[in-house]
Prior knowledge:
The chain is built from ten helices and eight strands. It is an alpha/beta fold.
Amino acid sequence: MTGRHRSLPGLLIALLLLACSRPDPAPSPGRLTVAVSILPQVEFAERIGGDRVTAISVIPPGANPHAFEPSPGQLTALSGARLYALVGSGLPFEVSWVGKLRAVNPSVTVVDCAAGITLVERDPHIWLSPRLAATMVTNLCAGLVSVDPEHRTEYETNRDRYLDSLAVVDRELAGALAGMAGRRFMVYHPSWGYLARDYGLEEIAVEDEGKEPTIQRLSWLVEQARTQGIGTIFVSPQFADRSARTLAAELGIKVIAIDSLAPDYLANLRRVGAQLAGSR
């Protein structure tokens, strides 16, 4: 065990040693275990890999990806993964823990799904743009091919089919949101900046750089909502939303939950598009 592990809690050290010393758990017959960071990537991996992969998400349903820290049990569960697909866009969890994930499984191949994407500072939510998701899917496919080149043709065929589905959703969103071009919409947590950019919108966040809004910001938000004719505040199930609901009550507007980490990725984008289009 190297010096960089000595700062970890004793229980975690023991579990890491156990994971590195024991053989990988037997995978399902004929399947590769692919670990990903977030639930939308599970759909990416399963649609590319089909029956040849079992995809597991490190961040479980309902967890806040900005504050999440994997448990020792979750870390050891990764010891049998052949491939680990990072989002790669700066999620705090990945920045802080990828070295420890590698320690659990030194032989794992790590693929950066953000490779080739120009990132916006302090916005890691690249998967919420179907156009950027296409790049993520292409990178994930390349990672699968690298660990299982024998089935390259199958993976690339599945990739192309899923890219076609992403393109369909992109066109649907462009049509649904065409009437909103240039408009602002209000969210609690700023997850939707890349999607807004794709379709000519602008999100306004209640949260201010991860903190509850100040009195001054709340006053500004009230002014924005009134001058922009905003009738909805969108919240996320992974984040506390008391201030957003207080603001909505003050303004007499709706609060609607939209999920940036829903596992049914394509269907979720369609739901979000419909919610945004009808939010006024």
